[in-house]
Amino acid sequence: MIRYFTFFVSILTFTTTYAQVDITYYLPANTTYSSEIPEPKDVIGHEVGEWHISHDRLVNYMYAVANASDRITIQQIGETFENRPLLNLIITSPDNHQNLEKIKTDHQKLSDPDQSGSVDINSMPAVTYMGYSIHGNEPSGSNASLLAVYYLAAAQGDYIEKILKETVIILDPSFNPDGLNRFASYVNANKSYQNNVDPNNMELNEPWPRGRTNHYWFDLNRDWLVAQLPESQARIKVFQEWKPNLLTDHHEMGSNSSFFFQPGIPSRNNPLTPKNNYELTRKLGEYHAKALDEIGSMYYTHESYDDYYYGKGSTYPDVNGAVGILFEQASSRGHARETENGVLDFPFTIKNQFTTTLSSLKGLNELRTEFLQLQKDFYINALNEARSSANKAVVFASKDKYKNYHLAELIDRHKIEIYQAKNNTTVNGQSYSADETFIVPMEQPKHKLIRAIFDKTTTFQDSLFYDVSAWTLPLAFNVNYQTLSAKSYSSGQLGDRFSPTVKPKGNLIGEPSKYAYAFEWNGYYAPKMLNQLLKNGFKVKVASEEFNNVGRKFSRGTILIPVEMQNKPASMISEYLKTLAAENGVDVYALKTGLDYQGVSLGSPSFINVEKPNIILLVGDGTSSYDAGEIWHLFDQRFDINVTLMPTDIFNRADLDKYNTLIMADGSYSSISTSGAEKLKTWVREGGSIVAAQNALKYLNKIGV
After folding, report:
1. Residue 317 and residue 623: Cα distance in Å, rounded?
2. Digit-coded pLDDT (tens) for 561-581
């Protein structure tokens, strides 16, 4: 059966009173829709825009439509820290669905200069990756994805058949499920029956840490390049598997704005991005402008934002032979909000995001061969640039094998070839063993992405930036690196290709000891290893002075495990330490004697007993959720160390006696009361330790700690 919708406008732009809308408000006029496809309200229980969509209902609708449509295949590509599914819908014609693997394989050939000449771009579909609401409290995107999926599954006619025949659409309805659900739960819980548009209203002022970020309060839109989080890793895997021609990234901005689409400010493009990328972005912008003109929406484009940092959804594609598009919609914050332009209601924000979803598909379809040619030329030119460059490889090394491993792991996620060194190597005058060294050949199709990771850029066409301007990743990882010229590099230096399944292993060095063991503090997972010992009841000391043993010098901070102090058999201790060393990539040394006439002997009072940490991390109002979230993630996910997340208002009345460590991320700490500050000073005088950063230090100085 077919049903026909007549289109009418039920809300004017920036209405002064809020009226409920139905699906006809959003959909294109004069289009027929299959009755076999459920409308959103049939599954989620309300009209789109009446409430903020919760992630569970969003997922339910995606599966319902996929089950009803032969245009859609749905797959779970991962899950969040809160175990919410990360979904992709592959949307294309039924005929294309029967041939998806061949389409994918042919499309991948475009990024391989050795094979791209055999591909006929005139007959192949374009691929687009459409992603919504990577910031969870910018929800108009994910709510618009309900409409996008309905339209693509249900719309009938020659136009949609052409779009589906000539396009493979990868649609992610929620880049950030945890943040989206956190925000939706808050605004729905605080929605009045009569919409209150006062900006001071509780509904429009979400509490700390807000819904922008994921479970650990990371900004996922800065994680495309470093890809440290499960949401990002799932996205990057799909991106590199399909290598789309266009990626759309739907965001929100300040409520008093209008609507933004790229291109942004041209002088702030990354110089690694080809100029024809910008020109194609401009052409696509004309389709957005026309579509927004037709519904009377105000917008702007090249007056703001930029395409410099490759760690964002709108810029990562630009260094991968694709075009990334940032959409920014003025935010209603909740269901409706008074702004400088009148009342901005939630359905209107959704409508703009849906409208530009459709204009993106129309533009990609009509410019299809230009997008495909851009991708083909990008990789040919990148490889030619690599061959003509004086730099032939990048080598990086570190005595900390896990720092090396995690940087190599990051590079490998982007399908860049990276190899273990075959032989011992010297990097910037320092010697490293083969297993401490990795080499990235520059002569490969991902040449520009390699440069994006390793280049140290210090001059710019425009010195102003919307976002990050310096991110050279080996510097961030604190590993030693250098470029190799043709004179100093040959493929014979390459050992095995990196595999993320082969992780560094530490060793128990020396025969089992009945006296003591030691490991240094310079391994990435040394804190995790120490915590494992303390949790298992080991008595552990830390060196406050250098000492010499087994023919080597041990630095301050070295951890000492005296055997006779443990209530455990010596044989069990050696086996356990051997296991911990292997798991954590930290070498443990068996010591046979405590005597050291050059430094300090092992019984010296300079070895201090290590107390099991009982840690407070201050969170809540007055603290940076980004910084606190990174610390929480580090301890919780990387080091397996338990941390009490204590809101600052709880701190004011909490008993601190059972804690020995307080961590203060960046923040003003304005919500700590006068009595709380006095309690903090007393706790420090009684032996408590504080680890503080940035403006937290100003606060501590202010109160006299």
Report:
1. 33
2. 999 999 999 999 999 999 999
